[in-house]
Amino acid sequence: MIKAIAVDDEPLALEVIRSHAARVPFLQVDAYFTNAFEAIDYMAKHTADLLFLDIKMPDISGLELAEGLQHKPLIIFTTAYAEHAVTSYELNAIDYLLKPFSYPRFLKACHKAHEQLLLRQGGKLPVADSIFIKSGYEQIKIAFADLLYLEGGGNYMSFIMTDGRSILSRLTMADALTLLPAEIFARVHRSYIVNKTKIDRVERHQLHIAGQMVPIGSAFDSGAILK
Fold this sequence. Notes:
alpha/beta; five-stranded antiparallel sheet
């Protein structure tokens, strides 16, 4: 579990982080601060693995705060100003989130932090076995073992499950590819992503999953899908 804190002078920005963090199973945000100096005092007394840090704040910037920390956690900078990107990486930030950022982009940054912490500890990187997606007003856990494939249309993806359910979520194809581990899932068409462990048979222009046929796009190599 990653223990984190978040610092941003805008309460609404912290609420976005709080909402996204609640959907990340390996992340625990212990404290949120709109005042940078209160955050500094907190970090002097408590340890954290990860710091979500806004750059442009009154009195002291996130860059100055990061430079002044004696014991530096992993840092993910958040800001509405793209010109700060180069400076943030000079401070060895593991990622840089440009506001407004989506949940998939936030999750990708959290995965980077998770990988860095595991590597520091000499551990192996586990492959996730589930994700949470938003469907309507609900947050639904999708176990990869129960997911056959995804079908995209516009800004929505349908998650086709082994029990026959089709769960609709507002995600683009790029968002879905960010959320899903490449070890398990493969894009086979401009509109389809499949669970490689569920494939029964692969043909030149289509594949079979649980009695259903999924097309293979002309731009995709059918021979490489199972690799």
